[in-house]
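Much of what follows relies on a compact textual record of a protein's fold. An example makes this concrete, so a full record is given next.
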Amino acid sequence: MPWLQLKIETSAEMAEQIGGMFTANGAQAVTFVDAKDTPMYEPKPGEVMLWPDTQVIGLFDASDDMPAIIKRLGNAKVLGKDFKYRLEPLEDKDWEREWMDNFHPMQFGKRLWICPSWRDVPDPNAVNVMLDPGLAFGTGTHPTTSLCLRWLDGVDVEGKTVVDFGCGSGILAIAALKLGAKNVIGIDIDPQALQASMDNAQRNNVADRLSVFLPDNQPTLEADIVMANILSGPLLELRSVITNYCKQDGLLVLSGILAEQVPRIETAYQQHFNLEPTAIDDEWARVSGQRIR
């Protein structure tokens, strides 16, 4: 189906109101994007953060009467009759197919490969994680996940109990199991993430060693390895929870951290962990260490 994109640049204060006007006029979807290149990180729970200069994009069916829609928008006091806009066609593609075609097997460290479930593995003798991300985050393409996978490939997980805090698609949990972990406990706030983790675990024949929980139901235990690839805000707020999962001499790896946020993370965790040198990939960082006796 052919689509049209209607784009209007506005302020953060007006963006949601304009988005509502798009929806009221038949937009199938409304997106807010940065109009100027302004960094914006980590909204608080329930908070919607928009850039000072925000572009509102409405997706309309190409058969919609766009002149009439634009006229109705202009009649509103919010925009006025002479408001500036861009109306562009959106190429008609099978976007899911497009994404699948561009998701290739990737190697992390010496042994570990992440392979899309719809592609052949490049090295049958490697440790291959077959992944279908579904609706959950985590394919290995983002630097934060890549940093954790490379770290995981370089440590001894054989026979260990592992916690994957913020498990997403289950990519780290399943990688740990395929590398020899005894069992993994996955925790996430999103039920769809837990379902994606279990689906991917079944695809990799390790579901019998993976248990998943929402935070309200998370178990009490001490693990040999704790992984938390989330964001710096939750890493700080949940420091005691994450720390208490890690037994004495256990290993910890944290990511989802911007390089500029590393000092705060290190200050928060160095009381209980001997921290290793921070690893940096692009603007993202990985903090890791061993629990102090």
Summary: The longest helix spans residues 12-24. Confidence is low (pLDDT under 50) at residues 37-50. The chain has nine helices and 15 strands.
